[in-house]
Amino acid sequence: GETSMSESAEEKVEVERLEKAISQLHALKERLKTDAYLVAMVEALGHVIDELCTDVCVDVHRWYRLDLLELDGRHEAANRVVDAAGYDIHGQIPEKVPKSETFNCDHCGQKVGAAKFAAH
What we know:
Elements: H1 2-34, H2 36-65, E1 102-104, E2 111-113
Antiparallel strand pairs: 1-2
């Protein structure tokens, strides 16, 4: 008897809280129809959320393609560093660049051979 009374009292409080929240949402929705500032703010926030979602999707896709993320819930590949001859640290076979190819270092301005560029 006593637990069912407290549960029904808790449910009543929860229902009242939810009804108040719904009422506040309806009031906000009505203000959005007339308040130009709120309309602009909601539109701007919508664009920010769209950009964030796009960034997350692109990052997750990149991590999956590089085998840095597994979709089955295990993430052991995420911190894996490959230490094998002929492979870079991500386990990819690097492209062969001719030794004669050089690049200008953005930091010091020197010409550096392609094979030594990363270490430079």
